[in-house]
Amino acid sequence: MEATFKQIVAKIEAYDKIIIHRHQNPDPDALGSQGGLGEAIKHSFPNKQVRLVGGDVGDLDWLTPPEEVPDDFYQGALVIVTDTADTPRVSDARFDQGDFLIKIDHHPNDDAYGDYYYVDTAASSCSEIIVDLINHSANELSLDAEAARVLYAGIIGDTGRFLYPATSTHTFEVAAQLVSYDFDHSNVSQTLNEISLNQARLQAVVFARLDFDGHGAAHLVISQELLQQLKVRDDQVNSVVSTPGRLREVLLWSLYVEKPDGTYRVHFRSKGPVINEIAKAHHGGGHPLASGASATDLTEVKQIIAEMIAAGQAFEDGQA
């Protein structure tokens, strides 16, 4: 059922145990929306038991580290999932074991799971939605410096530091509200911007080996052999996903990261052509201009590359 902020806040008020999930392989927005909501509830309702659930967060453990939660804690608990479009991507399969389930998200609502859901695809980030939820709660929920810190990280992460089209005047208003709290926002930005020397070497490889079709589409296959050679973990590849977009000639691009089992994690990005329908056709999904998917082998990788090239050419023809 589609819910209002008022209905969501009423559920938060009604439960003594609250468990917040986010998606697998989390980015700053997943951790920011999860941690920001959790911190706001703890700050506003000190007697409630609030837990944050999910797997490894890689280099982002300075934002919101996950907590160990026993199975029996789910009994009689409210479960909230943030920034997660569909149930297969929820980190920790126990998300449906609570008493009541709420989805809060900004991706296309292709999987309308939950007893309640609130989805705003116009929002720059799920962290922006969480701030709106808090601001519309008639003081039942309130921010503190820690909530503001992680929510700000979520917003600048998902907007590419206010670069992407979903950034609105409201996004800037929310960001201004957050930086009024007592945390070092420049340090948050700097930490998110930092990469390791090995990641920098991978970035150089992306520029050097990027395959460009001449009509705006670019791609690169990143093998396990290369990752091991550069000593880069799978989760650290996220730092180079936006790299091809810095090239003036690139309109849309895809990176294919080989996993240890021989399958591929696919990252899609675009400056114009809609690419999430391609992602949906390959066990994925996401935003129109930023999505992810999976490929079982190099044959499927080649199929996706062909589809991306076709999407770029169709966009180019439509613009002519």
Description:
Helices cover 37% and strands 17% of the residues. The chain is an alpha/beta fold. The chain folds into two domains: 5-193, inorganic pyrophosphatase (n-terminal core), CATH 3.90.1640; 197-319, Roll (Diaminopimelate Epimerase, Chain A, domain 1), CATH 3.10.310.30. The strands form two sheets. Strands 6-7-8-9-11-10 form a six-stranded mixed beta sheet. Helix 2 (28-44) packs parallel to helix 3 (126-135), helix 3 (126-135) runs antiparallel to helix 4 and helix 4 (145-158) crosses helix 6. The longest helix has 22 residues, at 298-319. The protein starts with a helix and ends with a helix. The model has no long low-confidence stretch (mean pLDDT 95).
Q: Just give the CATH class of the largest domain.
A: Alpha Beta
Mean pLDDT: 95
What's the CATH H-level superfamily name of the largest domain? Answer: inorganic pyrophosphatase (n-terminal core)
Give the uncertain stretches in residue-range form: none
- Which range best describes the helical content: under 10%, 10-25%, 25-40%, 40-55%, 55-70% or over 70%? 25-40%
CATH architecture level-2 label of the largest domain: Alpha-Beta Complex
Strand-and-helix sequence, N→C?
HEHEEEEHHHHHEEHEEHEEH
Characterize the overall form.
Answer: globular
Could you give the order of strands across the largest sheet? Answer: 6-7-8-9-11-10
Give the N-to-C terminal Cα separation. 43 Å
**In this structure, how is the largest beta sheet organized?**
6 strands, mixed
Q: How big a fraction of the residues is strand?
A: 15-25%
Q: What count of structural domains?
A: 2
Number of strands: 11
Helix/strand class: alpha/beta
CATH fold type of the largest domain:
inorganic pyrophosphatase (n-terminal core)
Radius of gyration over all CA atoms, rounded: 20 Å
The number of distinct helices, counting runs of at least 4 residues, comes to 10
Domain DDH: 17-155
Keywords: Hydrolase
Domain DHHA1: 229-309
Organism: Lapidilactobacillus gannanensis
